[in-house]
Specification:
423 residues, 8 helices
Length: 423
C-alpha cells in the first residue's frame, strides 16, 4: 500500500533445490472369526425334524437320507430317530452359519482418535491426512476453476464460517492485473475504475498492524457489490510484524514472546473477520509481513514460527494461507524453508519487488517451479497515482495468477452496481 517502505533491491538468484516427498504407509485390519456349535439332538422338535428332512431332500442327494414312508409311526418329540438326528445337526449348523453371514456385525464401542488439527502442534510429527503436504518444488494447492465461472461466485458452505474444519472448497483463480490501496475505495470509485486495466483489488480486511484500520467503506454489502461489478478480491491481513521490521510505524506491532500461540490466535482472528464480510471457505487470506532486517537470524526464526502457526490455523479452518512480503526478506526466507522441506508454509506467494515491470515467473529468489501454478502475485510498483473515470487513487500495481475470494452468502446489491461488468 502507499504507506509501505519500498522493498530492498534485487539480489542474486537462489540456488535450485528440491526435497523428496514421503509416502505414508497404509494400515491393515485383520478380520475376526466366530464359531458356532450344533444344537443338542435330544432337544430338537418334531417340526424341526420335518423341516430338516425337506431341506435335506432338496439340497443333499445322499441315498442314506431317504425320508420315512407315510405309514411310519410318528415318534415322540423327545426322541427323533438316529438318522434324522444327524440330518437335524447338519442342517441346523448350516442354517446357523447362514444367519451369521447375513446378519450385520454386532455393535461395538470404539474410541475415535482426535483429529490431527485439534492436537498440539509438533515440528516432528507426521503431517495428518487433513493437512495438505507441500510438494518439493511447488507450494500451490490450486485446483480447477475460473474467476468468471458460475461456480466461482456460488456458496462455499458454512463450515469454516462457523469455525470448524470441513471439506476444503475448490479455490477460484484470477490471472491479470490487480491493485491494492490502503483504504477500500467507495463503490462509486470502484464502478468508475471498471474502465481500468485492473480486474482484482487487494482489501485490508483485518489485523492490528493495518495502516488504515478504520475502513469505513469495507462492509459485507461493499464486498458483495464490488464482486457483482466484476471485481475479484484479494483479502490482506496485516497482523503482528517481525521484531526487526524496517518500518518504524510497525515496530509497536512486533511479535511477542509466544510466536506460535500468537500466530494461532491471529489466524483465527483472520478467518472470523473474513467470514464476517461474507468471504467464505476456499478463499485465500494473505498475511502481510512487511520488510525486516536481513541477516537477523533470531528475528527471522521468530517470524517464521509466527507465520507457520498462522498458516496452520487458517488452513485448519478451511481457508488458503497466502503470504505477502518483500522479495529479499520474508519471501527469500520462505523459499529457503521450502527448499529445506519445512511444513506449514504458505500456499500462495505475493512478493514485492518494485522494478516497474511484472516478473511473475522470473523472480530471482524463487525457484522457477516454486508456488506454481496459479499461486503467485508480483507487486511490481508502489505508491503510484492513477485516474480512471474521473477518480484518482494512490495504489500499488500487481500482476497475478492466484486464488481470489469466494463468498458464502448473497447480499442485496443495487442494480446500478450489479449492471456494470468488466469487458
Amino acid at each position: 500500500m502507499s504507506t509501505r517502505t519500498p522493498p530492498p533491491s534485487e539480489a542474486a538468484s537462489a540456488s535450485e533445490a528440491a526435497s523428496a516427498s514421503e509416502a505414508a504407509p497404509g494400515s491393515e485390519a485383520a478380520p475376526g472369526s466366530e464359531a458356532t456349535s450344533a444344537p443338542d439332538a435330544a432337544s430338537a422338535s418334531a417340526s424341526a425334524a420335518a423341516f430338516a428332512s425337506e431341506a435335506a431332500s432338496e439340497v443333499a442327494p445322499a441315498p442314506a437320507l431317504v425320508p420315512a414312508p407315510p405309514s411310519a409311526p410318528v415318534r415322540p418329540r423327545s426322541a427323533p430317530p438316529p438318522g434324522a438326528r444327524a440330518v437335524i445337526a447338519v442342517v441346523m449348523a448350516a442354517l446357523a452359519g447362514t444367519v451369521l453371514l447375513d446378519a450385520p456385525p454386532a455393535a461395538t464401542t470404539r474410541t475415535e482418535r482426535p483429529p490431527a488439527t485439534t492436537r498440539a502442534a509438533s515440528d516432528t510429527e507426521p503431517a495428518s491426512d487433513t493437512e495438505p503436504v507441500p510438494a518439493p518444488a511447488t507450494r500451490s494447492t490450486a485446483g480447477p476453476g475460473s474467476a468468471d465461472s458460475p461456480a466461482a461466485s456460488g456458496s462455499a458452505g458454512s463450515s469454516a464460517a462457523s469455525g470448524s474444519a470441513g471439506a476444503p472448497a475448490a479455490p477460484v483463480h484470477f490471472a491479470g492485473k490487480a491493485f491494492d490501496t490502503c483504504e477500500a475505495p467507495s463503490l462509486t470509485v470502484m464502478r468508475a475504475w471498471r474502465g481500468s486495466p485492473y480486474g482484482a483489488v487487494g482489501i485490508y480486511f483485518g489485523g492490528r498492524g493495518r495502516g488504515c484500520p478504520v475502513q469505513k467503506e469495507l462492509t459485507p454489502a461493499w464486498v458483495a457489490s464490488a464482486h457483482a461489478m466484476g471485481w475479484r478480491l484479494l483479502p490482506l491481513f496485516v497482523g503482528s510484524q517481525a521484531p526487526c521490521v524496517d518500518s518504524l510505524a510497525k515496530r509497536r506491532f512486533a511479535i511477542g514472546a509466544d510466536p506460535k500461540g500468537q500466530g494461532t490466535r491471529e489466524g483465527g482472528d483472520a478467518v472470523r473477520a473474513a467470514s464476517a464480510l461474507g468471504i467464505g471457505a476456499g478463499s485465500p487470506l494473505y498475511l502481510d509481513i512487511e520488510a525486516y532486517r536481513r541477516g537477523d537470524t533470531a528475528c527471522a526464526a521468530t517470524t517464521l514460527s509466527f507465520v507457520r502457526a498462522w498458516n496452520k490455523e487458517v488452513r485448519r479452518l478451511g481457508y488458503l494461507p497466502g503470504f505477502y512480503s518483500s522479495a529479499d526478506t520474508g519471501v527469500r526466507d520462505m523459499e529457503t524453508q521450502r527448499r529445506a522441506g519445512t511444513k506449514d508454509l504458505p500456499d500462495v506467494m505475493w512478493f514485492a519487488r518494485w522494478r516497474g515491470q511484472p516478473a511473475l515467473l522470473t523472480e530471482s529468489v524463487l525457484h522457477p517451479e516454486a508456488w506454481t501454478p496459479h499461486a503467485r502475485i508480483h507487486q511490481y510498483a508502489g505508491n503510484v497515482t492513477e485516474t480512471y473515470g474521473g477518480r484518482t487513487l494512490a495504489i500499488d500495481r500487481n500482476a497475478m495468477d492466484a486464488p481470489v475470494a469466494r463468498f458464502t452468502s448473497r447480499v442485496p446489491v443495487p442494480l446500478s452496481f450489479a449492471a456494470s461488468r468488466h469487458p
